[in-house]
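Dear support,

Our group has been running a series of protein-ligand predictions, and this particular one with manganese (II) ion is the one our PI (initials K.S.) wants archived with full inputs and outputs. We had some confusion internally about which version of the output was final, so please treat the block below as the authoritative record. The input we submitted was:
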Amino acid sequence: MEFTALHKWLPNLKHPLVIAGPCSAETREQVLKIGREVAKIEQVKIFRAGIWKPRTRPNNFEGIGEEALGWIKEVKKETGLLTTIEVANAKHVELALKNDIDILWIGARTTVNPFSVQEIADAIKGTNIPVMVKNPINADLALWEGGIERIYQAGIKRIIAIHRGFSTYGETHYRNKPIWKIPMELKRRNPTLPIVCDPSHICGKRDLVGTICQRALDIDMDGMMVETHHDPDNAWSDAAQQVTPSVLADITKKLSLKTEYSTNKNFEEKLNGLRKQIDEVDGDILDALKRRMDVVEQIGTAKVKSNVTALQVSRMGDLLAKRMERGEKLGLTERYVKEIYQVIHDESVRKQTQIMKDSKSK
Ligand code: PEP
Ligand code: MN
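Confirmed final output from the archive:
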């Protein structure tokens, strides 16, 4: 799959891309207040708000629904931010499109279900609307990639994958455990796919959000989706994990960017220096092996003269024990030294056997 690069479709993109807004749209005032505040943060380019909320248990606030679409439209008009909402079925897609939502996102509980993802893919065919695909709640890379493929096959090239962590049983440090190697493998398989992190659903608690944002940038992710609320403690959903717009501004200011040039250049220089050292050490090793082999040949010739066998088991045992003892003092494992000397000794015996054979045929 070949995806459209973020800077080609997000105007004035400033790395990292930050997507901000409340877990849920609650009231018109709340949506507008948060929209206005996050718009002041330079990196924020997309405003998010959930209007249909997939709650774990019934009888909780399940989202405002259609009415909130008008409020989000107002944020877009007033701030110029792009807007995104979660869609879980064809009806949601239809309403989002009708209300000029710019980007759709597929939630973790939807990505797990290929029927739902396909229903969404069929509903967006021919529209060219960008779609963000969160990882499924379970740690299944194929299912995540499969969801992305369904959207891609509907003709969408502007796709962003979102790592929001994976559900685990029992109490853990995180609400949804991040398994960084999974988005990294997704990236390895799809180098052009932009990937952002959702620290809010990973952490479940607001004090960890900044750390996870930094972690995401350290592995070269493209940005983050951060749940932001002007009064997090009184949010109608996910109260513990939302941060205020001013905390978000602070987090983005403190991020250290491991960008292309300077860091990479230092890294390259350092790597080249270390590789040169490895080349030199390897040259020394090969020279030493050659010197050793010359001595082995001399021993072989001497053995022929005195009619002694090439393999002397006791010598081999003695040599190995000594080398392993020395290796251990140097901090090299027994297994490593043993394997190396087995290969070296085998080759020495082979060489001496050859010398003996040659002397007989003379
Ligand atoms: C959300 O972003 O509000 C949400 C419901 O997230 P997730 O699908 O990752 O649980
Ligand atoms: Mn949420």
